[in-house]
Amino acid sequence: MGEATARHLANKGARVVLGARRTDRLDALCMEISASGGSAHFQLVDVTSRSDVPAFVDLAVSQYGRGDVIVNNAGVMPLSKLEALKVCEWDQMIDVNIRGVLHGIAAGLPLMQKQKSGQFINIASIGAYTVSPTASVYCATKFAVRAISEGLRQEVGEDIRVTVISPGVTESELAESISDEGGRAEMREFRKIAIPAMAVARAIAYAIDQPAGVDVSELIVRPTASPF
Fold it and tell me: Pick from 88, 119, 143, 176: most CB atoms within 10 A?
């Protein structure tokens, strides 16, 4: 979803800064965007690091003089029943899915307050609205993203927009983090109706494209055929 969003926004004229752990893929994407006439830079970012994310925002400012939108997209989803006691995976979901969003807010909020403008787009999930077996911890992290986002919106809404995008099953690498065989099998079946990542990218662009005084607070984007 991050790759599709970067490509789509760059095609619409946005100047993008990309951050992730796999810099080889970031390098290739930036070269593709540049070759198409766009503007893109990248930096190694681990969203669980309290120093990596501010440095990422600093890169955007150094290259472009400001930061208008931060998309907090990083997430992991190692599904398993609670009785499997995969505590390390629980911790990983909390660190990436919750702390990662908080680190993005902490890094970008002072800049946006100084600019008196900006937008946070936090990627949640349909799991932020309902809970299913094997997904209780994952859903808890996405409920948290909604709660954090709504609190942020209420606190800084005069100048800064806050949007939650909640995808349903989408083509991505998210399911690759599932180590539990039962959860992996369930997800393979669930993903047969997945929508393309570009559908989420277009939803993000829609939220960004609204006038400054219009805040699209929540969007759910899911397959038409999905019962969830």
Answer: 119
